[in-house]
Design a protein that fits this description.
heterodimer, A: about 300 residues, mainly alpha, two-stranded antiparallel sheet, globular, B: about 260 residues, alpha+beta, 2 domains, six-stranded mixed beta sheet, four-stranded antiparallel beta sheet, 13 strands, about 35% helix, extended, disordered C terminus
């Protein structure tokens, strides 16, 4: 009952379970502006979907969820299209470079080890920093209304860069080089680690581009939409790994979830959002660390996936 | 002239030879019945039962193997890095492994088969037999453990299974009994040709066997989508993206908040 056969995955699944999974990840996506691949792909593998099909079909569903989420955030005035486009250009360039970098790393051997360790350390660092910073900010707000920020060396440096321009939606003035260069950096990392990049992009926007948290969420979703359109078409074309039936059930859940997520996001303060996202980042890090430490059930694995 | 005289007897002899040959083939499979011999994978396919039935000697055991084509596979091997962290460490190549292998057997007189894998191995069936058949691209000392892990992985995927004692019998007369194996074909099976081999076993020896073909085909929506995905992959990709965007737009239209209102 309630089962559908997935022609590309070569297995059947319970429609309600997949719909529920999609809904859950869609809510997270709407709240935090992440694609949710870190959560969805392992869950799909757990229920018997081949890793490559799980990752590719997940990109297809993120297209739906991020369309829904971007629109919801756009209506709330939370999407900075100018910033999003610049990050996207950087991201695509970085992604293309990253694919070459990983080839070199693989040839050097032990690439998987380096990648996993870097990822765990980075998630740990970013998560802890965000957590502590937003906790302090929440406490300070309770004590005094506002605290003026000191001009740091970093702020002085980015203020001196050429081609300064206004990003009205974010309410900041920056050099166009900043989003381009940071986009390339995130694109390279995302390609190497085989993830969408939401977890890296969101902290980069918050701390390095200093955008307001709510605009970060909307803009991140806008950018993820385009990245995942590209991945879905490329995966369909070169690897035939997109299972449309799987993606369709997932996205029916996730597009709905993204709408609710955006509404929840609206109700939360910027620092509350940050602290929740920081907790989520730390949970993902802990899960990855456990995967590395616990003895696997089977000593062989299929190729692909995260 | 001579040919015209011997023509009729020769034709009769050849015809009789062919008839006997055919009779020999059909008797092999006449003892067993496979139902159905065609499995269709439709939109709601969630595995299906396959019934194998027939008659055997009253004291004998039966084994049924449903197996797919031999394949070559490359898998990631997990190992410890720095003596602490588990991760993928290199590829392992497997050759001469079936893509699907499901075994049902009775343990009437073959009680040792349930506990001792060598009993089945001698008959050319079972996981121990598969282990000895497969070729593994790894050093000899790792071969045994890798073969075990391979079997574990395939069982987790639902593609390999062994069911001891899951054949039921009904005595017909003093010499014969009928058997029935209700085999569960899991949804993980892929389209293709499979072989159903039925063996009658007497005291550790195969006394009779039959081979039947089982066809698995996709139909309806699964057939349409997989042919689109493989034959028109770019179109399939665009189509998948378009539907996803349309679903996103539709959800926003039906459940979204109206325009206006700020987050801050």
């Amino acid at each position: 009952m309630f089962h559908l056969y997935l022609p590309i995955a070569g297995n059947s699944v319970n429609v309600l379970l997949i719909f529920g999974l999609g809904g859950l990840v869609g809510i997270l996506s709407g709240i935090f502006g992440v694609g949710g691949g870190f959560l969805m792909t392992p869950l799909l593998i757990m229920i018997g979907i081949p890793p490559t099909v799980a990752a590719a079909s997940d990109s297809n569903q993120i297209v739906g969820a991020s369309t829904s989420g971007t629109l919801a955030h756009y209506k709330m005035g939370n999407v900075d299209f100018k910033m999003g486009m610049l990050l996207l250009i950087g991201g695509v360039t970085g992604g293309t470079l990253g694919v070459q970098v990983i080839k070199v790393l693989r040839q050097m051997g032990n690439a998987d080890f380096l990648i996993k360790i870097t990822y765990v350390l980075m998630l740990g660092f970013v998560g802890s920093y965000m957590f502590i910073e937003s906790l302090q900010a929440l406490r300070k707000k309770e004590a005094s209304a506002t605290t003026p920020r000191n001009e740091s060396k970093y702020a002085q440096f980015i203020g001196k860069l050429p081609w300064q321009t206004d990003f009205e939606k974010s309410g900041i003035r920056l050099s166009v080089l900043m989003p381009l260069v940071l986009g390339i950096f995130v694109g390279i990392l995302a390609a190497i680690m085989g993830v969408g990049g939401g977890f890296i992009m969101v902290p980069v926007m918050v701390y390095l581009l200093r955008m307001p948290m709510h605009v970060v969420v909307g803009t991140s979703l806008f950018q993820i939409l385009f990245t995942c359109v590209d991945v879905t078409i490329m995966q369909s074309y070169s690897n035939h790994t997109v299972d449309f039936i799987l993606a369709l059930i997932l996205l029916l859940g996730s597009t709905l979830g993204a709408q609710f997520g955006a509404k929840i996001s609206k109700k939360l303060k910027g620092d509350q959002l940050k602290i929740l996202l920081a907790s989520l980042v730390l949970i993902v890090m802990a899960k990855m660390l456990l995967d590395l430490l616990l003895t696997p059930h089977v000593m062989l694995a299929l190729i692909g996936g995260h | 002239m001579i040919w015209s005289r011997i023509r009729i007897p020769v034709v009769i002899m050849v015809a009789s030879f062919i008839w006997h040959l055919q009779l020999a083939c059909s008797t092999e499979s006449a003892t067993t019945k496979i139902e159905p011999n065609l499995i269709a994978i439709g939109a709601f396919f969630n595995g299906t039962p396959l019934t194998v039935s027939g008659k055997v000697g009253v004291e004998n055991d039966v084994a049924v193997v449903v197996s797919g084509k031999q394949e070559e596979l490359t898998l990631k091997k997990k190992g410890k890095a720095l003596g602490l962290l588990w991760m993928n460490q290199g590829d392992v190549h497997f050759k001469k492994v079936p893509n699907f292998y499901i075994l049902y057997f009775s343990i009437g007189r073959m009680k040792s088969a349930a506990t001792d894998p060598n009993t089945l191995e001698k008959l050319g069936i079972g996981f121990e037999y598969l282990k000895n058949q497969m070729e593994i691209g790894a050093p000899a000392e790792e071969r045994d453990s890798l073969a075990d892990e391979f079997l574990k992985l395939k069982q987790n995927q639902g593609l390999y299974a062994s069911h001891p004692g899951e054949i039921s019998f009904e005595q017909k007369n003093e010499k014969e009994k009928s058997f029935i194996a209700k085999i569960w074909i899991p949804p993980q099976i892929s389209a293709g040709e499979y072989q159903v081999k039925v063996m009658e076993i007497d005291n550790g020896q195969i006394v009779d066997n039959s081979k039947n073909q089982l066809n698995v085909k996709e139909e309806g929506i699964p057939l349409m989508l997989s042919s689109l995905a493989f034959n028109h992959s770019l179109l399939y990709g665009f189509f998948a993206v378009l539907i996803a965007v349309a679903a996103g737009l539709a959800m926003d239209f039906f459940f979204g908040t109206g325009k206006g209102g700020g987050a801050h």
